[in-house]
Specification:
It is a single chain. With 284 residues, this protein is mainly alpha-helical. It folds into 2 domains: 1-53, no CATH class; 54-283, Na+/H+ antiporter like fold (Up-down Bundle). Helices cover 80% and strands 0% of the residues. It has helices at 2-5, 8-28, 33-44, 55-75, 79-110, 115-126, 130-139, 146-171, 183-205, 207-214, 218-239, 243-253, 260-283. Helix 5 crosses helix 8. The longest helix is centred in the first third of the chain and has 32 residues, at 79-110. The two termini are 22 Å apart.
């Protein structure tokens, strides 16, 4: 039995059984599934049953789940709403980052930490978990509401700021043997603008005719959507923007097509399945 459990397939089977059981208990107690899935990670991790051994496989499924989650968020975004809420999200996001990091830095100094350590603590205290917040909003069906859209914009601003913050810390020589100057920051900004330009060109010239062709075979449309999410997430991660931003842009690239609701409906179960492994990995 132990040999069966400690194969990759056996581990995933045990995790799915635990997730179903703990999830049922959690819903009975009126707890979000996110809490139940993290509890499964704690239960199956080294401090519990020590079932999780295939960390690479579970991590891969978790990363794909992140890409699909943000893809589905992006595909439901209204471009007009983005234009109207963009300034609000930008101002509130930057304001929160500045406020929290400033007082976090002062608290770090007050606790006797060095200025460098206090700076890292201040940056760490500034940010929220995009994946957890978006999942909770999706479960409550509030992601399309006004406050959900503002919260999403807020989180994306945070994700972009953390990328820039890490680049700045590296550029001034904090955490590295020597600084890299402003080249990395300019490179990320240029890559981000290039990715946005690519999305705009895709939306204008390719998205609608391509999805119309793919929609003749529904299974192919789903495969293409997952491929789009994974590809943009990989590109976003490669250029330093992160998988979340890449997945979001992938969704936005198909948001103007007439098949966006069909794609979203078909990918929702896959998203929930893959995100299970993200929260299990988080708990483990």
């Amino acid at each position: 039995m132990e040999n069966i459990i400690h194969t990759a397939f056996g581990e995933i089977a045990v995790l799915l059984v635990l997730a179903a059981g703990v999830g049922l208990l959690g819903t009975t107690l009126r707890q979000p599934l996110v809490v139940s899935f993290i509890a499964v990670g704690l239960l199956a991790g080294p401090s519990g049953l020590d079932v999780v051994r295939s960390n690479d496989q579970i991590g891969l499924l978790a990363e794909l789940g992140i890409a699909v989650l943000l893809f589905l968020v992006g595909i439901k975004l209204d471009v007009k709403l983005i234009r109207s809420l963009g300034p609000v999200a930008l101002l509130t996001g930057l304001g929160q980052v500045a406020f929290t990091s400033f007082f976090g830095y002062l608290i770090g100094l007050g606790l006797g930490l060095t200025p460098v350590t206090s700076l890292y603590v201040a940056v760490a205290l500034t940010f929220s978990s995009t994946i957890i917040v978006v999942k909770l909003l999706s479960d409550k069906r509030e992601i399309d509401a006004l406050h959900g859209q503002i919260a999403l914009g807020f989180l994306i601003v945070q994700d972009l700021v953390v990328v820039l913050a890490m680049i700045v810390l590296s550029a001034i020589g904090i955490g590295t043997a020597e600084g890299h100057g402003g080249g990395d920051m300019l490179s990320v900004l240029a890559s981000g603008l290039g990715l946005v330009a690519l999305v705009m060109l895709f939306v204008r010239h390719v998205a609608t005719p391509l999805t119309e062709r793919l929609a003749r075979t529904p299974e192919l449309l789903v495969i293409f959507a997952v491929a789009q999410a994974a590809l943009f997430a990989a590109i976003g991660d490669f250029v330093g923007l992160g998988k979340e931003v890449g997945g979001l842009l992938a969704g936005i690239s198909l948001a103007s097509t007439p098949y966006r609701e069909t794609i979203a409906a078909r990918l929702a179960p896959l998203r929930d399945f893959l995100l299970l492994f993200f929260f299990i990995a988080l708990g483990a």
